[in-house]
Amino acid sequence: ITILRLSMGCSGLSFNSVPLPPVGTYQRSCEGGAHHRQRRSWVWNQFFVLEEYTGDEPLYVGKLHSDVDKGEGQVKYVLNGQGATSIFTIDENTGDIHATKRLDREEQAYYTLRAQARNRENNLPVEPESEFVIKVQDINDNEPKFLNGPYSARVPEMSPVGTSVVTVVATDADDPTYGNSARVIYSILEGQPYFSVEPKTGVVKTALPNMDREARDQYLLVIQAKDMVGQMGGLSGTTSVMVTLTDVNDNPPHFSRKSYQFSMSESLPVASVVAKIKTLDSDVGPNAEMEYRIVDGDGLGLFRITPDRDTQEGLITLQKGLDFETKSSYTLRVEVSNRNIDLRFLSLGPFSDTATVRLIVENVDEPPVFSLPLSKMLISEAAKVGTTIGTVSAHDPDSTNSPIRYSIDRNTDLERFFNIDATTGVISTAKPLDREVNAIHNITIFAMESLHPLQVGKCIILITVTDINDNAPVFAIEYETYLCESARPGQVIETISAMDRDEPQSGHRFFFSLTAEAAGNLNFTLRDNKDNTASVLTMRGGFQRHDQTMYRLPVLIMDGGSPALSSTNTLSIRVCDCDPDGAPQSCGSEASMLSAGLSTGALIAILACILTLLEGGVDREMDRQREKPLILDEERDVRENIVRYDDEGGGEEDTEAFDMVALRNLKLVRESGGKTRRDVTPEVPSLFLSSRPPPDNGIFRDFIWDRLKEADVDASAPPYDSLQTYAFEGSGSAAESLSSLDSLSTDSEQNYDYLSDWGPRFKKLADLYGHSDDGNLLAS
């Protein structure tokens, strides 16, 4: 055991430690102020203590001694710093330092403390404070750990030996600078002979060639890391590595069978899938994607084969329609191959396969087929009823060759303009045609098998009605022609044009002229402009309104058809007072009255007489209406009256309780918010109307309105001019019930004698519910 001594000045603290051997001495002297050297022990300002001490007694660390301490008990030693008093203690008399707790280098590798010698009596320092370090010395107490484990790795199947898979790393918490406690060696415990691990680097590699994923796709490895360079007594840790073999395209596809047979109906539509062929491939993902093609057979243009994206099955689809009577079976030779081929494995064989597919067509009863699904025909609008337009033809495609019967879909010929011969298919007119009403008729023809009426085919016929010259030309618009009083002779006052509902192939050509009776007039003339228009010109001036306000000029318009048609159209010309720019200002009708030979005063007198007569007639009619009673006679028609019974006692003659306007115009009543009619005031007094407000008619109005809407949308309802009767009594009565059932069940003692005061209409009720002489209630 060597005493490590630290001398400070001519006197100082000495540190005695246990663990290190003697290496020399060092002394410093201050005697006489002269310095001289003398061999003494080397001095370090640090102590060493082993970690994980498990003894029962405190662990001795070292000794602190001062040159001032002469052993007389005048000096005491004090320890401060990290762990002082809690981990490390010092004997104040001897300076011995002990560790009272077990230390762990991995938690704290060293402790820095301060030591001082003090006078015991006055506690003053006898030497300056000195700092020293207690270093925790490592032992192999930590095993290697894989902080990133467990591991998972992927490596392609069929990889060569030595292919790197993954690198595992283990760490040791022990001191790597002291001994071999942290030097780790790797080894494989499980996973041989398929994989190996580099002892120093931890790189996991493949150890066997041609590992096949289809045989086994996962391997669980156990890797060990051991410290002390793998020697006996070293600590170890393990981790697992899950190695998955990824797929490569090392397996060719092949059909599950060499020949297939499928059946298909001849009525299948184009693009239907007629067969699905299963192909086997041990690979997965992109390595199992297929490509198909038809390499031979008698249906090369009729069928197509493509892969299903999800299942990679071969889907044979129909490209054209089938016909059992034409061909009843097909034979195809199909080939399958991988879409993504790995050239490294071509030596294993061809990555394709072939199979034979036989497709059998099943016969079905097909509807008749028209020779043309769409036909166009022409017919003149001058054709007489019964004129043949054209012929349609259909046949039964089945071997039975059933006779065909033809008919017209009347939903496409509602007015029944056409007929068809049920046997021959000849289409003819059934009514006169008018091109100007309907120029093209689109009708549907049905062809039905006589032996199988449910089998029906159809075709579309477009019948175009050709034009004939059967409409005379007329004015293009309704002209309003104004003639200024200041017009000069030869002035154009209007330019007219014509229209014709016919449509000649060469276009319209119209000729304008005045009629024979108007040709000699001295007021106006007509000039044909040769461009389907004509100009109206004045022949004189001096037109005056007071002479004549309106002139009517008959114009003859003729078309260029064969035969030519013409019509006479009258042009009304009004004489007006115009401003200097020629704009009409006043076009009164006074002059036309004068032309009738009557003066203005005479006309006013006539109008006054007419108004007087009308006023007298209206007054007499109103007086006659006031004299009529409001209560209807028995002979009068009462079908438009609805009697309200919710008063329960109003009687059959009480027709004023209900407003008839609510029934005559339901829509108007609903829009007005249910306001009752106020323009009629009953003249016959009513006991109930005077005693309380009239009940709300909204219940009956809503009921009738709802029934009306139901009838409007009900296809099975009677026609609009029918009478519908509903037994609806409303939701209750404001007068409450007068039922005798309720009276008897509740032993009611209510007095109904007041019924006799209501008049003869309630006499029957008064007799039934009034009290008898003996005071008992009568009931029927």
Automatic annotation (TrEMBL):
The keyword Calcium applies. Its main location: other. It is a single-pass type I membrane protein. One of its GO terms (biological process) is morphogenesis of an epithelium. Keywords: Calcium, Cell adhesion, Cell junction, Cell membrane, Glycoprotein, Membrane, Metal-binding, Repeat, Signal, Transmembrane, Transmembrane helix. GO terms for cellular component: adherens junction; catenin complex. The keyword Acyltransferase does not apply. It is found in: Cell junction, Adherens junction; Cell membrane. Signal peptide: none annotated. Residues 66-146, 147-255, 256-370, 379-475, 475-586 form the Cadherin domain. One of its GO terms (molecular function) is beta-catenin binding. Cadherins are calcium-dependent cell adhesion proteins. This is Cadherin 7a. It comes from Oncorhynchus kisutch (Coho salmon).
